[in-house]
Amino acid sequence: MRSINPSRKWFDLSNYIILSLISLTVLLPFLNIAAGSFSGGNAILQGEVTVLPVDFTLENYSAVIKNAGFWKSFGITVYITVLGTAISLIFTSLMAYGLARRDLKGRSTILLIVLFTMIFTAPIIPSYLLVKALGMLNTLWAVMIPSMISGFNLLIMISFFQNIPDGLTEAAKIDGCNDYRTFWSIILPLSMPVMTTIGLFYAVSNWNGYYAAMMYLRDPGLFPLQVKLRQLVTQDNAGDFITSLSSAEGIKMATIIVATVPVVLIYPFIQKHFVKGAMIGSVKG
């Protein structure tokens, strides 16, 4: 049996310790918020809550669940996440498929423009004026369309498409397939790992979207969950939620947990595709 190098053993052990400490540092605030969401108001205000609930209660969640405004914002966020992710995946994959072809005229210039957008973001005022000129101001399209394609996600998908053997596309052309048929019938079915990866990136971004909604939306009836949460936390706007047995701080924490849990629950089911897609999209075959 081959012996393990002592230096490698200590290196692995150090990695485990460091990563465990980092994970614990990230997890502790979440556990504190979760514990507070199940705790009584007095215990929260007196600082008695750490990672375990004190004066256990479900009234904070009950108050959140019974609030119609919360569910309206939740539904808007689900709508933005599903539709926005679908739009982003369609246009990112189409653009990546074209840019993956090295014989495309102007390919280098387009890639340079994409890299430029990753380094320098558009100023606020021109972005606002453009959205206004396109008639998207105070509509949900303003939240989804301007961020439709991410330069980082685009580059990952380009790398993935370049790893697909050219023989597949050449065989499709011999069979009479045009570029669109080749993409939809051959390339796309082979791209599920990277599509799942990029889809997760877009879904998390759309779910947590706050900046665009604050900039382009004025109608409170269109506010997504993150804007509603921000109003609740920073403006102490919990009056509509509070019942006789709940507390403002507990409701804030319960709302944070409800806004976070959906993404946390979905990730384990797509973790395998996520890891595979990230690796394939970043390593040349």
TrEMBL record:
Transmembrane intervals: 16-35, 76-97, 109-129, 141-161, 182-204, 251-270
UniProt keyword list: Cell membrane, Membrane, Transmembrane, Transmembrane helix, Transport
InterPro entries linked: MetI-like, MetI-like_sf
An annotated GO cellular component: plasma membrane
Keyword Ion transport recorded: no
The keyword DNA-binding is annotated on this UniProt entry: no
Compartment list: Cell membrane
GO BP annotation list: transmembrane transport
Family: Belongs to the binding-protein-dependent transport system permease family.
Protein name: Carbohydrate ABC transporter permease
Organism phylogeny: Bacteria, Bacillati, Bacillota, Bacilli, Bacillales
